[in-house]
Amino acid sequence: MIAALLRRRRDVADKWHKGGLWYATPGDGRATTVEQRAELAPLWTPIFNAALAAGARNDQCLPRVGLPHYSVKLFMTQTLRHDRLRAFVGRIASLVDDETPEAALLEAGAVALRELIAHDDWLPDAFARPDPERYQQFLLHADSRQRFSIVSFVWGPGQSTPVHDHTVWGLIGVLRGAEIAQHYRAAPHGDLVEEGAPQRLDTGAVAAVSPRIGDIHRVRNAFGDRTSISIHVYGGNIGAVSRSVYPCGGGRKNFVSGYSNDVLPNIWNVSKESPIS
Q1: Strand partners, 233
Q2: Do the beta carbons of residue 216 and residue 192 sit within 8 Å?
Q3: What structural domains and CATH numbers belong to the chain?
Q4: Who is most buried in 113, 167, 201, 250, counting CB within 10 A?
Q5: Do residues 22 and 72 touch, judged by C-beta distance below 8 A?
Q6: Above 80 in pLDDT, residue 209?
Q7: 81 within 8 A of 267, measured Cβ to Cβ
Q8: Distance separating alpha carbons of residues 30 and 14, to the nearest angstrom
Q9: Which of 114, 121, 119, 112 is nearest to 87 (CA)?
Q10: pLDDT digits 0-9 by tens, 28-77
């Protein structure tokens, strides 16, 4: 479809595409004129609309698609819905406050997480950026008593974890893209063996881990050409929990993951938010 759209004639636009900012640069990186950017708008608009219809997010930077002489990106400005993450924090806090048994907590927490990741309009870009060297774990919220934490896990193309455990309960929900998890269990002789087939989690899917139901796995981005992002909630301050990785040669090695960020998103400044209709 995109190839077909690119073959369509360019008509000169008489105004900017409403609701977004067109930004085009020639191959040498020089800025273009308003007229040059406007010329690209009618070509790019159907591509953007087709991408939305195919499931792209309206806050997403669309990929470069081979326009001659130009590389074009479209950014749509929008207000982040911090209220969604606030509500999720409140629901998990209530489950923890009520000392909900783990099985019931995972069930209710999965419902809440599924509702959170059904919308992709609340995660700030700063906590959704991949790193070319390794996957990123951004802290989004930590309970003041370290009873639970919420993180965004950002996978660059083809990135994966080593085999590892968590030692606490956890829920994983895919916000963008997809990931593949291979679970493991300890055999009677002590070595790890694969348990079941790899599990693919697509956008909107939620899975659970805990020492009670299975806690050891290896996870990777399902895509080799794009970023994937999952939202995790754990029964502890996961960046400070002493855990283990399991090298392919056998044995185990302790580690503490830490976090990729030093600053948290401010989801509490309600006074600056517009009323949600």
Answers
A1: 150, 171
A2: yes
A3: 7-76 (no CATH), 82-255 (2.60.120.10)
A4: 113
A5: yes
A6: yes
A7: no
A8: 23
A9: 112
A10: 333 344 444 444 445 555 554 555 455 454 444 444 333 333 333 444 44
